[in-house]
Structure formats: structure tokens, C-alpha cells
Design goal:
mainly beta, single chain, globular, 4-stranded antiparallel β-sheet, WD40_repeat_dom_sf, 338 residues, WD40/YVTN_repeat-like_dom_sf, 1% helix
């Protein structure tokens, strides 16, 4: 007996590839890219529904991807290359580090592009010399401040805030013992948060260096997303998707998170939220994908379990599309609206 078509099959688009999908990402123009473990990127222009174009980018594995300033994407790989990819498939090499891995990439709309290899951070911008910073241990993650004037760098022992405009500006150290695996800056610029090796999130309110500690996770937080105008931070790492409130000056201090997507059978492995509305995409290690309205407490399963664990999710800047991929090479694109 045939199974009824899923909501994704009825309304969206789906593709099956042969490699692990590391990352899904929209640029500011709502173009979409998927980075794969075979070193390729798959490009889909905004509003298109055809099979995404395959572009051979890295010799072996793509390790990191981010939107480029304007349109297109920035990618780093284990071939030591940091490149910028245009929607026409053109590739511009930004830097090459022989024998190294480009673990993390990021960019800002002001034109600055960042990448890390080992202990070093590199900042590129047109018309000036590159800025290089070195840290005491391997860089765990990077994130620009909302205005692009600073960049947060996670590493063992804490997070360091560095100027993106001057190599001479003194960095600011946010210290916390332990291994910091990724970092994010709140859209209102008031908080910097780090996901830890110890199944928790540590954070700092920058105006007074007040510490935050967010715990209760079953495993490490590997995916997070600011949504609803920056009022919430959704996270993976549990049988639900904790959504921490950041509406007030104190952030989540004294508040419990909303917990959409509760699932007794699977762990949440990826999240992505609508930039403006309280809508959240939730992906699980059994392949299920759910969309939740956290204010109305309503949820709908758009993809049932299967096709591998969800490894990545992204919500387009215009709020119209949710993209996701799995460790078995299954990719989906679903139309959503606020």
C-alpha cells in the first residue's frame, strides 16, 4: 500500500545526492546553496525549482560555508582554500593555505570576509591589507557583530572580540574555562554566546560582562538560530528545540525557554527560524522535519522520518523558504510564510 505524500512532496522540492550535506545557506538575495562532503556546492537561484547546479569547488570536502557580501557564497575546505562563489558558478580564490584546513568562514554585508585555519583568523576586505590574528588554540567558531565592526572568535578558554577594521586595536577577552565550539552574536548586539563541549551554552552581556549559563541539554549544541526579530534563540541538543527569550535587557536570565518540537523518539539536530516571525524549522536525527509556531503552540510535520539525520537547516532572508539537508544526501526546500 502506497504511503500518502508528505507535505514536502506536495508543496516543496526535494533532491537526493550521494554525499553528506554539510550546510544549507541562503544569501541576502535569497539564492540557495548546499555544501557537500564531496567538495561540491549545489546552487539554486532565488525562486527557481529546477535541480540545483553542481559546481566543483574543493578537492575533497567542503568544511564551511556562509553567504558572501551581496550575492553568492564563501566556502572553505580541507584543501586549504577559501573561495568566493558567484551564482554563475564562477570561483574566486580568496586565500590558500597549503596543508591546512579552512574550518570556518563568515562574511558581513560591509564587504569583510573572514576565515580560520588552525589557530589563525584571516580578515579580507577590498582596498586594504589582510588582518591576521592568532589565538592560543584552534578556532572553534567565528561570528561578526551586527554592525560588522568586530568579530567574535571562540577557542579553548573563552571567546575573543577583535576589530575587523584595524590590526592594532586591542582584542577583548571573554574568559570561561573549557572548550568553546561555536559562537553567535545577538541581533541587538548586546549578547555573545558560546556553545560548549560540556553540553551547555555560556554567554556574556557585553554592557556589564554579566555571565549567562544555559543548560539542560542531552548533547552538545551544534545548531542554533536567532528568529522572530531576534527575540528568541532556538537550539538543538535535546528532544525538543529550546527557544531562549532575548526580549529584555537581561536576556534569558530568570526565564525558562519555550520547548517546541518535543519528540520522545529522536533528538533535535538542526534548527532554523523565520527572521521576523515566531516560526521555527526543527530537524531530527531520524530525518523528521517539523515547522512550529511557538506563539500559537502549533506544529506540522512537513517531512516524516527517513533519508538520514538532518544535518543543516536555513531560512531565507525574505521568510519565504526553509531549506534542509541530511547526512544521507537528501535535500529539501519548502515554501513557508509568516
Amino acid at each position: 500500500m502506497n504511503q500518502p505524500a508528505s507535505i514536502l512532496e506536495q508543496l516543496g522540492h526535494q533532491w537526493q545526492w550521494s554525499a553528506y550535506i554539510l550546510s544549507a545557506c541562503f544569501d541576502a538575495s535569497n539564492n540557495l546553496a548546499f555544501a557537500l562532503g564531496d567538495g561540491s556546492l549545489r546552487l539554486l537561484p532565488a525562486g527557481a525549482s529546477q535541480t540545483p547546479q553542481r559546481v566543483e569547488v574543493h578537492d575533497d570536502m567542503a568544511l564551511s560555508m556562509a553567504p558572501a557580501p551581496g550575492t553568492g557564497f564563501v566556502s572553505g575546505g580541507d584543501d586549504g582554500r577559501c573561495v568566493q562563489l558567484g551564482m554563475d558558478g564562477s570561483i574566486q580564490a580568496l586565500a590558500t593555505f597549503p596543508g591546512r584546513w579552512v574550518d570556518h568562514v563568515a562574511s558581513h554585508s560591509n564587504g569583510v570576509v573572514a576565515c580560520s585555519e588552525g589557530k589563525r583568523l584571516h580578515l579580507f576586505a577590498a582596498g586594504r591589507d589582510d588582518i591576521i590574528r592568532e589565538f592560543p588554540s584552534t578556532v572553534g567558531g567565528i561570528c561578526f557583530s551586527p554592525d560588522g565592526h568586530r568579530i567574535a572568535v571562540a577557542h579553548y578558554g573563552g571567546v575573543t572580540l577583535c576589530s575587523t577594521r584595524s590590526a592594532d586595536a586591542s582584542p577583548v577577552a571573554l574568559t570561561c574555562p573549557g572548550s568553546h565550539l561555536s559562537v553567535t552574536w545577538s541581533p541587538n548586539a548586546r549578547f555573545v554566546l558560546s556553545a560548549m563541549q560540556e553540553d551547555c551554552i555560556r554567554g556574556w552581556r557585553l554592557e556589564d560582562n554579566d555571565d549567562l549559563y544555559m543548560s539542560g541539554y542531552a548533547t552538545k549544541v551544534k545548531s542554533w538560530s536567532w528568529f522572530n526579530g531576534g527575540h528568541y534563540l532556538a537550539t538543538s541538543g535535546s528532544n525538543c528545540a529550546p527557544c531562549w527569550p532575548f526580549k529584555g535587557r537581561k536576556g534569558p536570565r530568570g526565564h525558562t525557554p519555550k520547548t517546541p518540537g518535543d519528540n520522545e523518539r529522536a533528538l533535535v539536530t538542526a534548527v532554523a527560524g523565520d527572521p521576523q516571525y515566531p516560526l521555527l524549522g526543527i530537524g531530527y536525527d531520524d530525518g523528521q522535519v517539523t515547522v512550529a509556531d511557538i506563539e500559537k503552540d502549533q506544529e506540522v510535520v512537513i517531512k516524516p522520518p527517513g533519508h538520514g539525520a538532518v544535518t543543516t537547516m536555513a531560512w531565507s532572508a525574505d521568510g519565504a523558504w526553509l531549506a534542509f539537508g541530511t547526512d544521507k544526501g537528501f535535500a529539501g526546500l519548502f515554501p513557508v510564510s509568516g
